[in-house]
Specification:
InterPro entries: ADH-like_C (IPR013149), ADH-like_N (IPR013154), ER (IPR020843), GroES-like_sf (IPR011032), NAD(P)-bd_dom_sf (IPR036291), QOR-like (IPR047618), Quin_OxRdtase/zeta-crystal_CS (IPR002364)
GO molecular function: mRNA 3'-UTR AU-rich region binding; NADPH binding; quinone reductase (NADPH) activity; zinc ion binding
Oligomer: single chain
Order of helices and strands: EEEHEEEEEHEHEHEHEHEHEHHEHE
CATH topology of the largest domain: Quinone Oxidoreductase, Chain A, domain 1
Helix content: 25-40%
Distance between the termini: 14 Å
EC number: 1.6.5.5
Structural class: alpha/beta
CATH class of the largest domain: Alpha Beta
CATH architecture of the largest domain: Alpha-Beta Complex
Organism: Devosia equisanguinis
Strand content: 25-35%
Number of strands: 16
Radius of gyration: 20 Å
Keywords: NADP, Oxidoreductase
Number of helices: 10
Length: 323
């Protein structure tokens, strides 16, 4: 048995329940993982609330790192004692768990487990957005919403290292300072000014090449208004609610724009893509191009408080849960 945060009905943070949870011996192709750190992400709240439904009951969470405890039949890539990490696999909020070996990546020297748990989902999200969804080129200008958030702090540093001009939006002066320290050339406090108008000012009326928007409903139209003709809006999250586009003609009227709704499920469906992204992420961390900020640490038993802090916009950078 292990301790796990279980969801038996959808709702607010109060539905997160610390329970004993059975962890069997690993089956064929599986690994039993003793987790040392677990990442906190908005997708965890979407699954808990029912926005992204999962079969009930389920163990919350999607990202973690730890030590291989046992391997099942047919697993040759890992052995007990190996340090590993993963992202995008529900069931993370537990001291121990079973997981398919193909979903794990080995941790290199120079990347500790708390850093890995804080960065895997966010960092691999940043990777596919910056390198695959829109391959950012030197000299381009991008807009990143929630630039002081966990994914934002990673992505803006990475985009700056690629040679882009980076504009970020934030909701406070403290977060503005953090965004500037992590790659943003220009920071807009959306509580104090119209971010789309400010983007137009900063780009001489042209607009940016691409907008990366994990906020959703509250920023969608402003994001479109921030783009140059034939620019791309990558809408990858719903922190303020899901986006609805009933009239596709708006994309024509605003400049023959492109909109995509990417997810890591499709970008990392093949193991070779997962390993490629993880290798690039770990190299960026070890080179210093990305500095991972863990702003808060919660005990696993306090997962509900961690969710409240995340949804209340009380966090910046990454947050980890410690079993």
């Amino acid at each position: 048995m292990t301790k796990a945060i279980v969801v038996r009905e959808t709702g607010g943070p109060e539905v997160l329940s610390l329970e004993d949870w059975d962890v069997a011996a690993p089956g064929p192709g599986q690994v039993r993982l003793r987790q040392t750190a677990i990442g906190l992400n908005f997708i965890d709240t979407y699954q808990r609330s029912g926005l992204y439904p999962l079969p009930m009951p389920f163990v919350a969470g999607n990202e973690g790192a730890g030590i291989v405890d046992a391997v099942g039949e047919g697993v040759s890539e890992f052995r007990p004692g190996d340090r590993v990490a993963y992202q995008g696999v529900p069931g993370a909020y537990a001291s121990e768990r079973l997981i398919a070996a193909e979903k794990l990546v080995p941790l290199p020297d120079g990347v500790d487990e708390q850093t890995a748990a804080a960065v895997m989902l966010k960092g691999l999200t940043a990777y596919y957005l910056l390198f695959k969804t829109w391959a950012v080129q030197r000299g381009e200008t991008i807009l990143w919403h929630a630039a002081a958030g966990g994914t934002g702090l990673i992505a803006t540093q990475w985009a700056k290292a690629l040679g882009a001009t980076v504009i970020g939006t934030v909701g406070s002066s403290e977060k503005a300072d953090m965004a500037r320290a992590h790659g943003c050339d220009h920071v807009i406090n959306y509580r104090q000014e119209d971010f789309a108008a400010r983007v137009r000012d900063l780009t001489g009326g042209r607009g940016v090449d691409v907008v990366y928007d994990g906020v959703g409903k509250a920023t969608f139209e402003g994001s479109l208004d921030s783009l140059r003709p034939r620019g791309l809006l990558a809408s990858f999250g719903n922190a303020s609610g899901p986006v609805s586009v009933p009239d596709l003609g708006i994309l024509a009227r605003k400049g023959s724009l492109f909109v995509t709704r990417p997810t890591g499920v499709h970008y990392y469906a093949r193991r070779e893509d997962l390993l490629e992204g993880a290798a690039a992420l770990f190299d960026a961390i070890k080179s210093g191009a990305i500095k991972v900020e863990i702003s808060r640490r919660f005990a696993l038993s306090d997962a509900a408080d961690a969710h409240r802090a995340l949804e209340g916009r009380e966090t910046s950078g990454s947050v980890v849960l410690l079993p």
